Amino acid sequence: MAIKLRKFSRSKVTKFIAFTLTVLLITLVMVQMNYIYNSNINPEAIFVKDYSKSDSYIYGELSRAINQVHFHILNDTDSIKPEPEYLYHITDGTITKRNEYLDKILEHKDYLYKYSGSTWEYGENAYKNIQNHVMDKYTLHLVFPEEYLQQKQKEWDIERDKLIPIALTLIIAVIVGIICVIYLIVVTGRRPEDDEVHLTPYMDRIYSDIQLGIMLFTLYMWLYGIASLFRHYSIDSSRGVLSMNQYYILTMTGILAILGSIICGVILLSLVRKIKAKRLLKHSLIYAVFAGISRFIRSFFDDSRFEHFPLTKSLNRRQAIFTAASAGMVFLLLLFWAATQNFFAGLIPIFAEIVIIYWYFYENKKTFEEINQGFRESVQEQMKSERMKVDLVTNVSHDLKTPLTSIISYVDLLSKEELTESARDYVNILADKSGRLKNIVSDLFDLAKSTSGNLPLDMENLDLRKLIEQTLGDMEDDIEKSDIRIKTSLTETPVFIYSDGKKLYRVFQNIIGNALKYSLSGTRVFIDMEMIDNKNVYVIVKNTASYDMDFTAEDVLQRFTRGDESRASEGSGLGLSIAESFTWACGGRFRVEIDGDQFKVRLEFPVIE
Amino acid sequence: MDSAKILVADDDREIAGAIEKLLVREGYEVVKAYNGMEALDALVSNQVQLIILDIMMPKLDGLSTMMKIRDSKNIPIILLSAKSEDSDKILGLSMGADDYVTKPFNPQELVARVRSQLRRYLQLGDKDSASSQSKLIIGGLCLDAEKAELTVDGEPVKLTAKEFKILEFLMRNAGCVFSAEQIYERVWQETAYSVENTVMVHIRRIREKIEINPKEPKYLKVVWGIGYKIEKIF
Fold first, then answer.
1. For the domain bounded by A456-606, which CATH number is listed?
2. B114 and chain A: CB distance < 8 Å anywhere?
3. pLDDT at B6 over 60
4. Contacting residues for B139 by C-beta, under 8 A, at least 6 apart
């Protein structure tokens, strides 16, 4: 089926043409039907060739004529108004009503209708199956003269000539229209490139039931509007020629047909697409409202979030049951009072509510106690592991420092012995490296303590600007020894922050020391300090690296944990990591940025108001 | 001063041995002990002028040993420990230690500290400290404002005029923290403007002259982000 369907063109152009064609055909059918109606053309002329055999003649003229004449004699009225096209003579022996003498009527005997003795007699060319009831006592002679019938037949033929082409076009239009509609229904939502059902962005976002409502309302208004156009102005028209009013009506019919069919067509196709995509019901306002209400109600009972926490899960469930039951009891109370008009009937839900409240609080209390117990245990567990961590750092620190002390001491003693030249070189190397090891161990434990959150802090209000100036003064010797110049741009006024001065001194010492060590000779190190807002102060230390920085900002700080080969030939290589860790511990933020050859450390601290 | 007797107490025999050799080379006599109890016993049988005491020792730890010693003796005690936290140092010093050296230590620094402690102890022993009112004494620092002289543990130290004035000002107000501006205005007698660096450089120079380890100053301290002070030591 799907393969066969693919044969139809699904391109937008074809769809558009089919849609336009359908709209035009519907309009054409409506306008033509209205035209037929307004033109007073009798549609029967298409089906019956002979006027004298048509229903219009038999029921419209003949049958009416017989009834008129019958009525005329029964009520003994003076005459039939207006002047009838037929000739008649009716009598019961005493009263006679006629518009022509009997002998004159009998001249048209081929077209004569005679009723006497409760039977009908017909002329040769007359219609031979009259069903009209006439009282038995009457004798009736009635004739439509041949000239009149011929005149009628002539008009009948003109109408027939006019109607047949209209009828044919109508039939074709209806057939083509139906084909177009079927085509559109088949291809809508499909695209040339695949077999999926695609919903149209804006149209299909409207809820199905709203669409259906709009469509039915439009259809109703449309039919009502067209019907009212059919009703008015349809009389007073001479055959074949239309009045101005009628042209107006036809135009209105056309416009209405176009608008109505476009609106209904677009909505219909949208609904069809939704049916194809199996979204018709799901995408309705009613569904959405019910789904929303159901979600809302279910959310009370949803405890998936507490899946791994049985205690909170039972609390949540109990709360939901309690709330629902209490609400139910209020409802029941009102219902009981309303139904029985009896005060005491209301005591039943009240009593039930008391039982529910007792159950709720009693069970919750037990659960809370269990939660408290668990909480207490986990806190104790945490404290224990925290203590173990501190002990670990302290013990490992002691175990490393003790042998190191021996090494350094004996290397020192060794260096004072009488030694050969090469032995002295070796001892110097040992002294140098053991000194470095001492620094690394010391830095390592500072870092370990700081990252494990066990760094003792001595927090106080201090002036960050002063601290930077003091650090620079303290490092003046190192700065002067290097060929790097420091350029500072500090704030005009003191900036107070709440921090640990000694630790921050380490931070700036490490950052500036780092900058001095790794800057390209002859360049400058910039230390900028600024307040962006009144809440935070930023310190940015920038330097131009003397080597290719083929690492990222993260690498610099994770050098140690990543086990990268340290580029430091002196010191521990942990300077920046310590600076970072201390900064965070002191309540600041620390970020490293690398931009080409520029190495930038950016510190941020909250300012005291 | 020659052949002062020093007690070295450390449970690590190699460290005790190394310290012994270091000090013997400097001309001191050394008695070793490997725990607190031994140290106390050694004190009974020896006339000791200074004690180097490890804190973490079996049987009786260094701090307890020190408290027992302090019950009867006033000789200088240098604590030796792998614990390097400020809080440990403060605890040790406040319990009666005269100095605190962290492991691993620089042997030369330890020797310098031993020498400094001994000099002070022995000199203070002979001298009448109340002899001069114009003298400011803080720990081993002795500043004579009239004579414009400074001795550290009895050793004369040369300071420039500004350095001397700064030190005098700070020593007169020992324990108080002063900002660079305050120090500048007192010492230079000028309005301070952007003087942090000037003062800091002077402070550093003074430190290099009076401190055994200028990186871990005992007397002249920087209060980072606030100012400078001389520690109040008796």
1. 3.30.565.10
2. no
3. yes
4. B120, B218, B219, B231, B233, B234
pLDDT at A27: 86
Q: What's the CATH code, domain B129-230?
A: 1.10.10.10
Q: What is the DSSP letter of A282?
A: T
Touching check for B24 and chain A: CB below 8 Å? no
Q: Which among A405, A438, A469 has the least Cβ separation from residue B15? A: A405
Tokens representing A570 are: 């002196």
Q: Which residues of B touch A501 (CB under 8 A)?
A: 223-226
A residues 403..462 contacting B (CB < 8 A):
404-410, 412-413, 416, 438, 441-442, 445, 456, 458, 460, 462
Whether pLDDT at A89 is above 80: yes
CB of B192 within 8 Å of a chain A CB? The answer is no
| E-only strand ranges, A92-225 | 96-98, 112-116, 119-122, 139-143
Question: What top-level class would CATH report for the domain B5-126?
Answer: alpha beta
Name the band, by pLDDT with cuts 50, 70 and 90, for residue A361: very high
Mean pLDDT computed over A145-151: 84
What are A575-593's pLDDT values in tens digits?
Answer: 888 898 899 988 899 998 8
Residue where the block lists tokens 């006497």: A116
Contact residues for A109 (Cβ-Cβ < 8 A; gap 6+): A123, A124
Enter the DSSP assignment of A191.
Answer: B
| ipTM of the prediction | 0.82
pLDDT at B52 over 60: yes
Provide the token pair at A134. 């006439």
Check CB contact of B96 with chain A, cutoff 8 Å. no
Among partner residues A402, A469, A474, which is closest to B82 by beta-carbon distance?
Answer: A402
- The closest CB to that of B225, out of A397, A441, A504, belongs to A504
Q: Kindly determine whether residue B226 and residue A466, on different chains, have CB atoms separated by under 8 Å.
A: yes
Interface of A with B in 455-474 (CB under 8 A): 456, 458, 460, 462-464, 466-467, 469-474
Going by their DSSP bridges, the two strands A589-595 and A598-606 should be labelled as antiparallel
For chains A and B, CB pairs below 8 A equal 111
CA distance B203 to B188: 14
Q: In this structure, what token pair is assigned to residue B213?
A: 């380890």
- Given an 8 Å threshold on Cβ–Cβ distance, is B226 in contact with A405? no
| Tens of pLDDT, residues B70-87 | 888 888 999 998 887 788
Residue B27 near residue B2, CB atoms below 8 Å: yes
Query: How far apart, in Å, are the Cα atoms of A426 and each of A48, A415, A430?
Result: 133, 10, 6
Rounded to an integer, the average pLDDT of B106-131 is: 75
> Chain A within 8 Å of B104 (Cβ-Cβ)?
yes
d(CA B199, CA A470): 9
Residues 203-232 in B contacting A (C-alpha not used; CB under 8 Å): 203-204, 222-227
CA distances from B95 to A49, B9, B62, B82, B216 (A): 136, 18, 11, 18, 20
Q: Are A473 and B199 in contact (CB < 8 Å)?
A: yes
Backbone angles phi, psi at B69, to 5 degrees: -60, -45
Residues of chain A with CATH 3.30.565.10: 456-606
Per the confidence metrics, is the pTM higher than 0.80? no
* Structure confidence at residue A362 as a pLDDT band (50, 70, 90): very high
Handedness of CA A416, A421, A423, A429 (dihedral sign): positive
Own/partner pairs, A90-97, CB within 8 angstroms, 24+ separation: A90/A138, A90/A139, A90/A140, A90/A141, A90/A142, A91/A138, A91/A139, A92/A137, A92/A138, A92/A139, A93/A137, A97/A69, A97/A72, A97/A73
Domains of chain B, by residue range, sit at 5-126, 129-230
Q: Please, which residues bridge with residue B137 across strands?
A: B142
What is the residue-averaged pLDDT of chain A? 83
Residues of A in contact with B106 (CB under 8 A): 408
